[in-house]
Amino acid sequence: MPDMASGMGEQRDPSPYVELDRDAWASLAASTSSPLTFDEVARLRGLGESLDLAEVQQVYLPLSRLLSQYVESAGQLHRRQEEFLRRPQPPRTPFVIGLAGSVAVGKSTTARVLQQMLAHWPEHPEVALVTTDGFLFPNAELERRGLLDRKGFPESYDRKALLRFVIDIKSGRDLVDAPLYSHLSYDVLPNERLVIHKPDIVIIEGLNVLQPARSRDDGRTGLAVSDFFDFSIYVDAATSDIRRWYVERFLRLRETSFRDPASYFAKYAGLSEAEAVVEAERIWDGINGPNLVANVLPTRSRATLVLRKDSDHSVRYVRLRKL
Prior knowledge:
The chain is α/β, with parallel strands linked by helices. Helix content is 36%, strand content 18%. It has a domain at 93-316: Rossmann fold (3-Layer(aba) Sandwich). It is globular, with a radius of gyration of 20 Å.
Protein backbone atom coordinates (compact mmCIF):
# COMPACT_ATOMS: atom_id res chain seq x y z
CA MET A 1 0.00 0.00 0.00
CA PRO A 2 1.35 3.48 -0.80
CA ASP A 3 2.19 5.87 2.01
CA MET A 4 -0.83 8.15 2.25
CA ALA A 5 -2.15 11.03 4.29
CA SER A 6 -3.73 9.72 7.46
CA GLY A 7 -7.23 10.48 8.66
CA MET A 8 -5.81 12.79 11.31
CA GLY A 9 -4.42 15.17 8.71
CA GLU A 10 -0.74 14.26 9.03
CA GLN A 11 1.07 15.16 5.79
CA ARG A 12 3.32 12.48 4.33
CA ASP A 13 4.74 11.85 0.90
CA PRO A 14 2.46 13.04 -1.91
CA SER A 15 -0.02 10.38 -3.03
CA PRO A 16 -2.85 10.17 -5.58
CA TYR A 17 -5.09 8.92 -2.75
CA VAL A 18 -6.70 10.28 0.38
CA GLU A 19 -6.84 7.75 3.18
CA LEU A 20 -9.16 8.23 6.14
CA ASP A 21 -9.30 6.05 9.22
CA ARG A 22 -12.64 4.86 10.58
CA ASP A 23 -13.21 7.81 12.95
CA ALA A 24 -12.25 10.47 10.40
CA TRP A 25 -14.49 8.90 7.76
CA ALA A 26 -17.43 8.53 10.17
CA SER A 27 -17.20 12.21 11.13
CA LEU A 28 -18.08 13.21 7.56
CA ALA A 29 -21.73 12.25 8.14
CA ALA A 30 -21.95 12.69 11.90
CA SER A 31 -24.84 15.15 11.61
CA THR A 32 -26.90 12.91 9.29
CA SER A 33 -29.07 10.05 10.49
CA SER A 34 -29.03 6.68 8.81
CA PRO A 35 -32.23 6.00 6.85
CA LEU A 36 -32.07 2.24 7.59
CA THR A 37 -33.73 0.58 10.57
CA PHE A 38 -32.37 -2.24 12.70
CA ASP A 39 -34.62 -4.76 10.93
CA GLU A 40 -33.52 -3.56 7.49
CA VAL A 41 -29.86 -3.90 8.44
CA ALA A 42 -30.49 -7.41 9.77
CA ARG A 43 -32.06 -8.43 6.44
CA LEU A 44 -29.14 -7.01 4.48
CA ARG A 45 -26.44 -8.66 6.59
CA GLY A 46 -24.47 -11.45 4.93
CA LEU A 47 -23.88 -14.82 6.53
CA GLY A 48 -21.34 -14.50 9.35
CA GLU A 49 -20.91 -10.74 9.00
CA SER A 50 -21.07 -8.24 11.86
CA LEU A 51 -22.94 -5.48 10.02
CA ASP A 52 -24.89 -3.34 12.49
CA LEU A 53 -26.41 0.13 12.72
CA ALA A 54 -23.09 1.60 13.86
CA GLU A 55 -21.32 0.23 10.76
CA VAL A 56 -24.06 1.61 8.53
CA GLN A 57 -23.92 5.02 10.23
CA GLN A 58 -20.14 5.31 10.33
CA VAL A 59 -19.16 3.73 7.00
CA TYR A 60 -22.03 3.46 4.55
CA LEU A 61 -23.81 6.70 5.33
CA PRO A 62 -20.75 8.85 4.41
CA LEU A 63 -20.18 6.67 1.35
CA SER A 64 -23.77 7.02 0.17
CA ARG A 65 -23.59 10.80 0.56
CA LEU A 66 -20.32 10.94 -1.38
CA LEU A 67 -21.83 8.83 -4.15
CA SER A 68 -24.90 11.07 -4.21
CA GLN A 69 -22.62 14.05 -4.82
CA TYR A 70 -20.92 12.20 -7.66
CA VAL A 71 -24.32 11.44 -9.19
CA GLU A 72 -25.38 15.06 -8.87
CA SER A 73 -22.12 16.30 -10.42
CA ALA A 74 -22.48 13.86 -13.31
CA GLY A 75 -25.94 15.28 -13.98
CA GLN A 76 -24.58 18.82 -14.05
CA LEU A 77 -21.80 17.80 -16.41
CA HIS A 78 -24.33 16.07 -18.67
CA ARG A 79 -26.41 19.24 -18.93
CA ARG A 80 -23.37 21.38 -19.69
CA GLN A 81 -22.13 18.98 -22.34
CA GLU A 82 -25.48 18.96 -24.11
CA GLU A 83 -25.58 22.77 -23.98
CA PHE A 84 -22.08 22.90 -25.44
CA LEU A 85 -23.11 20.55 -28.25
CA ARG A 86 -26.25 22.65 -28.81
CA ARG A 87 -28.42 19.58 -28.64
CA PRO A 88 -31.81 19.14 -27.00
CA GLN A 89 -31.09 17.55 -23.67
CA PRO A 90 -32.01 13.84 -23.65
CA PRO A 91 -32.43 12.08 -20.31
CA ARG A 92 -29.12 11.41 -18.62
CA THR A 93 -27.93 7.82 -18.73
CA PRO A 94 -27.78 5.90 -15.42
CA PHE A 95 -24.85 6.43 -13.09
CA VAL A 96 -23.03 3.08 -12.95
CA ILE A 97 -21.09 1.89 -9.90
CA GLY A 98 -18.80 -1.14 -10.13
CA LEU A 99 -18.18 -3.09 -6.94
CA ALA A 100 -15.44 -5.74 -6.76
CA GLY A 101 -13.74 -7.94 -4.20
CA SER A 102 -13.02 -11.52 -3.26
CA VAL A 103 -15.39 -14.35 -2.55
CA ALA A 104 -16.44 -14.14 1.15
CA VAL A 105 -15.14 -10.58 1.66
CA GLY A 106 -18.67 -9.20 2.00
CA LYS A 107 -19.06 -7.33 -1.29
CA SER A 108 -22.63 -8.60 -1.79
CA THR A 109 -23.64 -7.13 1.58
CA THR A 110 -21.90 -3.87 0.68
CA ALA A 111 -23.82 -3.77 -2.61
CA ARG A 112 -27.17 -4.44 -0.92
CA VAL A 113 -26.57 -1.79 1.76
CA LEU A 114 -25.53 0.81 -0.79
CA GLN A 115 -28.56 0.04 -2.94
CA GLN A 116 -30.89 0.64 0.00
CA MET A 117 -29.01 3.71 1.26
CA LEU A 118 -28.86 5.39 -2.14
CA ALA A 119 -32.53 4.68 -2.87
CA HIS A 120 -33.51 6.55 0.32
CA TRP A 121 -32.17 9.85 -1.03
CA PRO A 122 -34.87 11.67 -3.05
CA GLU A 123 -32.41 12.72 -5.79
CA HIS A 124 -32.19 9.17 -7.19
CA PRO A 125 -34.91 6.81 -5.93
CA GLU A 126 -34.46 4.09 -8.56
CA VAL A 127 -31.33 2.06 -7.77
CA ALA A 128 -30.81 -1.29 -9.49
CA LEU A 129 -28.40 -3.99 -8.32
CA VAL A 130 -27.00 -6.53 -10.76
CA THR A 131 -24.59 -9.30 -9.85
CA THR A 132 -22.30 -10.71 -12.52
CA ASP A 133 -23.02 -14.28 -11.36
CA GLY A 134 -25.84 -14.31 -13.91
CA PHE A 135 -23.27 -13.80 -16.67
CA LEU A 136 -21.37 -16.96 -15.79
CA PHE A 137 -21.61 -19.57 -18.50
CA PRO A 138 -24.15 -22.26 -17.52
CA ASN A 139 -22.63 -25.30 -15.81
CA ALA A 140 -23.14 -27.45 -18.90
CA GLU A 141 -21.14 -25.01 -21.00
CA LEU A 142 -18.44 -24.69 -18.33
CA GLU A 143 -18.16 -28.46 -18.22
CA ARG A 144 -17.95 -28.62 -22.02
CA ARG A 145 -15.10 -26.10 -21.93
CA GLY A 146 -13.34 -27.84 -19.02
CA LEU A 147 -13.89 -24.78 -16.79
CA LEU A 148 -16.26 -26.05 -14.10
CA ASP A 149 -13.41 -26.08 -11.55
CA ARG A 150 -12.48 -22.53 -12.59
CA LYS A 151 -15.88 -21.03 -11.95
CA GLY A 152 -15.38 -17.38 -11.00
CA PHE A 153 -12.19 -16.99 -13.03
CA PRO A 154 -12.48 -14.37 -15.81
CA GLU A 155 -12.75 -16.99 -18.55
CA SER A 156 -15.83 -18.54 -16.91
CA TYR A 157 -17.98 -15.48 -17.72
CA ASP A 158 -19.77 -14.58 -20.91
CA ARG A 159 -17.87 -11.30 -21.07
CA LYS A 160 -19.41 -10.26 -24.38
CA ALA A 161 -22.92 -10.54 -22.92
CA LEU A 162 -21.89 -8.61 -19.81
CA LEU A 163 -20.28 -5.89 -21.91
CA ARG A 164 -23.40 -5.63 -24.12
CA PHE A 165 -25.52 -5.28 -20.98
CA VAL A 166 -23.43 -2.42 -19.60
CA ILE A 167 -23.31 -0.68 -23.00
CA ASP A 168 -27.12 -0.91 -23.20
CA ILE A 169 -27.36 0.65 -19.73
CA LYS A 170 -25.04 3.53 -20.65
CA SER A 171 -26.79 3.97 -23.99
CA GLY A 172 -29.93 4.97 -22.10
CA ARG A 173 -32.19 2.12 -23.18
CA ASP A 174 -35.53 2.24 -21.34
CA LEU A 175 -35.59 -1.51 -20.65
CA VAL A 176 -32.52 -3.66 -20.12
CA ASP A 177 -32.51 -7.21 -18.77
CA ALA A 178 -29.87 -9.44 -17.21
CA PRO A 179 -29.70 -13.19 -16.51
CA LEU A 180 -30.27 -14.46 -13.00
CA TYR A 181 -28.21 -16.96 -11.00
CA SER A 182 -29.24 -19.42 -8.28
CA HIS A 183 -26.78 -20.11 -5.49
CA LEU A 184 -28.98 -23.03 -4.50
CA SER A 185 -28.63 -24.82 -7.84
CA TYR A 186 -25.19 -23.27 -8.45
CA ASP A 187 -26.22 -22.40 -11.99
CA VAL A 188 -27.71 -19.74 -14.23
CA LEU A 189 -31.51 -19.83 -14.26
CA PRO A 190 -32.40 -20.56 -17.90
CA ASN A 191 -35.81 -18.90 -18.06
CA GLU A 192 -35.54 -16.01 -15.62
CA ARG A 193 -34.32 -12.45 -16.21
CA LEU A 194 -33.89 -9.34 -14.13
CA VAL A 195 -35.60 -6.45 -15.94
CA ILE A 196 -34.32 -2.95 -15.27
CA HIS A 197 -36.50 0.02 -16.21
CA LYS A 198 -35.03 3.53 -16.33
CA PRO A 199 -32.85 3.37 -13.20
CA ASP A 200 -31.09 6.42 -11.80
CA ILE A 201 -28.19 4.31 -10.53
CA VAL A 202 -27.02 0.80 -11.38
CA ILE A 203 -24.67 -1.10 -9.06
CA ILE A 204 -22.81 -3.93 -10.80
CA GLU A 205 -21.24 -6.30 -8.28
CA GLY A 206 -18.85 -9.12 -9.04
CA LEU A 207 -15.41 -10.64 -8.66
CA ASN A 208 -13.93 -9.42 -11.91
CA VAL A 209 -15.80 -6.22 -12.76
CA LEU A 210 -12.62 -4.11 -12.56
CA GLN A 211 -10.67 -6.27 -15.01
CA PRO A 212 -8.89 -4.21 -17.68
CA ALA A 213 -9.61 -4.70 -21.36
CA ARG A 214 -7.95 -7.68 -23.05
CA SER A 215 -5.84 -7.52 -26.17
CA ARG A 216 -7.48 -9.06 -29.24
CA ASP A 217 -5.83 -11.54 -31.55
CA ASP A 218 -5.06 -8.71 -33.97
CA GLY A 219 -3.25 -6.77 -31.26
CA ARG A 220 -5.97 -4.19 -30.71
CA THR A 221 -7.35 -3.57 -27.23
CA GLY A 222 -11.07 -4.12 -26.76
CA LEU A 223 -13.48 -2.53 -24.34
CA ALA A 224 -13.80 -3.51 -20.69
CA VAL A 225 -16.91 -3.40 -18.53
CA SER A 226 -15.07 -1.03 -16.21
CA ASP A 227 -14.70 1.48 -19.06
CA PHE A 228 -18.37 2.36 -18.50
CA PHE A 229 -18.24 2.79 -14.72
CA ASP A 230 -18.75 6.26 -13.26
CA PHE A 231 -17.40 5.14 -9.86
CA SER A 232 -15.85 1.92 -8.61
CA ILE A 233 -15.40 0.34 -5.19
CA TYR A 234 -13.13 -2.49 -4.06
CA VAL A 235 -13.89 -4.31 -0.79
CA ASP A 236 -10.53 -5.35 0.64
CA ALA A 237 -9.17 -7.40 3.53
CA ALA A 238 -6.16 -9.49 4.44
CA THR A 239 -6.11 -12.71 2.42
CA SER A 240 -5.75 -14.77 5.60
CA ASP A 241 -8.92 -13.19 7.02
CA ILE A 242 -10.87 -13.79 3.81
CA ARG A 243 -9.79 -17.44 3.81
CA ARG A 244 -10.99 -17.81 7.41
CA TRP A 245 -14.30 -16.11 6.59
CA TYR A 246 -14.79 -18.46 3.66
CA VAL A 247 -14.29 -21.53 5.87
CA GLU A 248 -16.62 -20.13 8.55
CA ARG A 249 -19.27 -19.40 5.95
CA PHE A 250 -18.92 -22.90 4.51
CA LEU A 251 -19.56 -24.34 7.98
CA ARG A 252 -22.68 -22.21 8.43
CA LEU A 253 -23.98 -23.18 4.99
CA ARG A 254 -23.42 -26.83 5.90
CA GLU A 255 -25.95 -26.30 8.71
CA THR A 256 -28.44 -24.33 6.58
CA SER A 257 -28.84 -24.21 2.80
CA PHE A 258 -26.63 -27.25 2.13
CA ARG A 259 -29.30 -29.32 3.91
CA ASP A 260 -31.83 -28.48 1.20
CA PRO A 261 -32.05 -31.58 -1.06
CA ALA A 262 -32.28 -29.23 -4.06
CA SER A 263 -28.93 -27.67 -3.23
CA TYR A 264 -26.01 -28.36 -5.55
CA PHE A 265 -23.93 -28.66 -2.37
CA ALA A 266 -26.23 -31.09 -0.52
CA LYS A 267 -23.38 -33.61 -0.64
CA TYR A 268 -21.54 -31.54 1.96
CA ALA A 269 -24.37 -31.53 4.51
CA GLY A 270 -23.36 -34.89 5.94
CA LEU A 271 -19.72 -33.99 6.54
CA SER A 272 -18.43 -33.75 10.06
CA GLU A 273 -17.12 -30.33 11.11
CA ALA A 274 -13.53 -31.46 10.70
CA GLU A 275 -14.26 -32.91 7.25
CA ALA A 276 -16.09 -29.73 6.25
CA VAL A 277 -13.12 -27.58 7.28
CA VAL A 278 -10.78 -29.72 5.18
CA GLU A 279 -13.11 -29.51 2.18
CA ALA A 280 -13.60 -25.73 2.51
CA GLU A 281 -9.85 -25.20 2.75
CA ARG A 282 -9.31 -27.43 -0.29
CA ILE A 283 -11.81 -25.41 -2.35
CA TRP A 284 -10.30 -22.12 -1.21
CA ASP A 285 -6.72 -23.17 -1.81
CA GLY A 286 -7.52 -24.71 -5.19
CA ILE A 287 -9.98 -22.21 -6.66
CA ASN A 288 -10.93 -19.05 -4.76
CA GLY A 289 -7.52 -18.25 -3.33
CA PRO A 290 -5.65 -18.53 -6.63
CA ASN A 291 -8.37 -16.52 -8.39
CA LEU A 292 -8.06 -13.78 -5.78
CA VAL A 293 -4.29 -13.56 -6.09
CA ALA A 294 -4.11 -13.84 -9.89
CA ASN A 295 -7.19 -11.93 -11.04
CA VAL A 296 -9.17 -10.09 -8.36
CA LEU A 297 -6.58 -8.47 -6.09
CA PRO A 298 -4.59 -6.93 -8.99
CA THR A 299 -7.68 -4.87 -9.88
CA ARG A 300 -7.77 -3.15 -6.46
CA SER A 301 -5.64 -0.25 -7.69
CA ARG A 302 -8.17 0.44 -10.44
CA ALA A 303 -10.93 1.29 -7.94
CA THR A 304 -12.00 4.84 -7.17
CA LEU A 305 -12.49 3.88 -3.52
CA VAL A 306 -11.24 1.00 -1.37
CA LEU A 307 -13.00 -0.19 1.79
CA ARG A 308 -10.39 -1.99 3.90
CA LYS A 309 -11.85 -4.41 6.42
CA ASP A 310 -10.42 -5.56 9.73
CA SER A 311 -10.39 -9.15 10.95
CA ASP A 312 -13.93 -8.81 12.38
CA HIS A 313 -15.43 -7.67 9.03
CA SER A 314 -15.68 -4.03 10.18
CA VAL A 315 -14.24 -1.37 7.88
CA ARG A 316 -10.97 0.00 9.29
CA TYR A 317 -10.18 2.70 6.76
CA VAL A 318 -11.26 4.15 3.44
CA ARG A 319 -8.94 5.05 0.57
CA LEU A 320 -10.27 7.45 -2.06
CA ARG A 321 -8.59 8.46 -5.29
CA LYS A 322 -8.05 12.21 -5.55
CA LEU A 323 -9.75 14.18 -8.29
